[in-house]
Amino acid sequence: MKQAYMTGFGNEFATEALAGALPQGRNSPQRPAFGLYPEQISGTAFTAPRDRNLRSWMYRILPSVRHGSYQPWQHPTALNSPAQWPVSPEQARWNPPAMAQGACDWISSLKRMALNGSAASKQGASIYLYAMNASMDERFFQSADGEWLIIPQAGDLAIHTEFGQLDIAPGLIAVIPRGIRFQVNPASGMARGYACENWGAPFRLPELGPIGSNGLANPRDFEYPVAAFVDKPGSYQLISKILDGFWVCELPAHPMNVVAWHGNYAPYRYHLKRFNTINTVSFDHPDPSIFTVLNSPTDNPGTSNLDFVIFPDRWMVAEDSFRPPWFHRNVMSEYMGLIEGAYDAKGEGFSPGCSSLHNCMSAHGPDAHAVQQASAAVLAPHKQSGTLAFMLESSLVFQPTEFALHGGLRQSDYLACWQSLQSRFHGSTLT
Questions:
Q1: CB of 259 closer than 8 Å to CB of 35
Q2: How far apart are CA 42 and CA 44, in angstroms?
Q3: Which residue of 27, 82, 106, 283 lies most exposed, with the fewest beta carbons within 10 A?
Q4: Rounded to 5 degrees, what angle do the CA atoms 308, 314, 318 make?
Q5: CB within 8 Å of 418: residues ≥ 6 apart
């Protein structure tokens, strides 16, 4: 049966799996319908401004406080691989992760590649790769540190949350807000992709400014799950993350036991093919900010804690212009991944599943092959199709982890892609 969804970014939703489960006129009645327990989850402070206040009410078979004592979880070492100091300005690129030989679920497969800021300060982010081949079964996860952005590159995923189910595949993303319990399972066989835990302000849609009221990611295209519950006593495992530490406790019942919910704090998915790409119709390659899907802002206007940016199918029509991204050094730091096809500024070495890091003020741009091709290209309108890349851009410097630098995925010859660039200068000497 096709999964049902509600639509509209940040809307106030109301959904019940049993008719009459949602109370009317109040949130916490003395005797809730069906003997359910009301429970609120708040994604912002109670006193946050109304337009930024995030909270939802859940009506559950058992409240989430019903659990055993927490113990440290003996997690895989790559899961919270530490940052390496000092941070080199050298550009870095990595191959995709290999699939595990034995059974490996999503949380056990996560390998941290880079981080900035800190979970304690509620700023920055932590970036991961995953390559899994097994279901989480009776294990569930929640993070007090931040919201999770999940970006599949190969293989479909079924994400079960307290609020209902999200089905995603390459070309779709899911966002699980801070504190919500969930599990990620391959729909069949193996799955691989990227994930990012945003420690800063929750993602929102970027301001459109002169673009106007429409364009980029339109609010109506974001989809939220309808209520669906599991009433199944047993012994389940909840893995909790707080201040970058992992803890585990036992649950006496299935945690997806929410019969109804209402509010504006909930997981959602988005189909990247619905992104309304804005591009030049005259000259020059515009700033990549026009490809921003989601934005985690800071208190400094226009400066992001984290932007999620995509480079999808699009028409290239710039006249008398070098059409790929230009060479540049940027105060922002960029972690990039490739979901499908090829990226127009990179040739061999950046295949789907790869990733790269260009930190603050580190020079980067198209490789020598891309420069040669684009400089000689006939500038007719050209549809760039079958491609989908993304970038996680931050005002904070990304610190590569021990795993990223020494885990066997790093391409040691990345700098070679620029080494054949030669001087093209042919001017006369000024006197």
A1: no
A2: 6
A3: 283
A4: 110
A5: 367, 368
Structure confidence at residue 347 (pLDDT) = 78
Are 178 and 144 a contacting pair, CB within 8 Å? yes
CB 229 within 8 A of CB 160: no
Task: Locate 367 and state its tokens.
Answer: 């490789």
- Tokens 């909270």 belong to residue: 55
Is residue 285 annotated as a catalytic residue, yes or no?
yes
Report residue 178 as tokens: 């801070």
Q: For residues 139 and 124, give the distance between their C-alpha atoms in angstroms, rounded to a whole number.
A: 27
Would you say 116 and 333 are in contact if contact means Cβ atoms under 8 Å apart?
A: yes
3-state class of 111 per DSSP?
Answer: strand
Q: Distance of CA 180 to CAs 53, 71, 171, 210, 388, Å?
A: 16, 20, 23, 36, 29
Distances (CA, A) of 265 to 56, 65, 166, 176, 261: 5, 19, 15, 10, 10
pLDDT recorded at residue 345? 85
Q: What is the largest CA-CA distance in the chain?
A: 91
As a residue count, the chain comes to: 431
| Element counts in the chain: helices (H) and strands (E) | 3, 28
Three-point CA angle 331, 401, 344, nearest 5°: 55
Q: Give CA 279 to chain center in angstroms.
A: 23
- Which residues, in sequence order, are CB contacts of 144 under 8 Å at separation 6+? 178, 179, 240, 241, 242, 243
Q: Which of 285, 369, 382, 426 is the catalytic position?
A: 285
Beta bridge partners of 117: 124
Q: Are the beta carbons of 330 and 360 closer than 8 angstroms?
A: yes
Token pair of 94 as six digits: 């990595």
Distance, CA of 125 to CA of 142 (rounded, Å): 16
pTM above 0.85, yes or no: yes
C-alpha count within 13 angstroms, C-beta hemisphere, residue 58: 27
**How far does Cα 153 stand from its chain's mean position?**
12
CA atoms within 13 A on the CB side of 326: 11
| Tokens standing for residue 12 | 């106030």
- Strand-pairing partners, residue 410, are 94
Residue 1's pLDDT is what? 59
**Which residues of the chain register pLDDT less than 70?**
1, 428-431
Q: Quick check: helix, strand or coil at residue 249?
A: strand
Q: Is 139 exposed, middle or buried (0-12, 13-18, 19+ CB in 10 A)?
A: middle
